[in-house]
Amino acid sequence: ERCNRMVSFPSYFSNKIKSVVSQLYPGVDVKIEVGPNNAKGKNGDYQCSSSFLLAKELGKSGQKSNPREVALQLSELIKDIKCVEKVEITGPGFLNFHLQPEFVSDQIQQ
Fold first, then answer.
1. d(Cα 85, Cα 82) in Å, to the nearest integer?
2. 34-36 sheet: strands from edge to edge
3. What is the pLDDT of residues 34-79, one digit of tens each?
């Protein structure tokens, strides 16, 4: 999937994750938020902790899951974003997005 110029990354990633959540967990509705990662460089450019909310909701419906497992499932389906160098899971289930350096450079120059 191609990223267009001047995209709002938190909004773009949130929408992408919402789409994946609806495929993986039909009927489960949780707030998906993506924000800048405060530990820039170390754990990526953007971070999402919604796997914790998803695991909690799945538990309420009798589907035992932990946040790290949920994050792993999500990362497998969102790793095709072209402007992202990698999606990784850190800690107990944080999703971290690393933007491609060339993409960031192009955005800054334009």
1. 8
2. 34-36, 46-48, 94-99, 84-90
3. 988 877 567 888 899 999 999 999 999 888 889 999 999 999 988 8
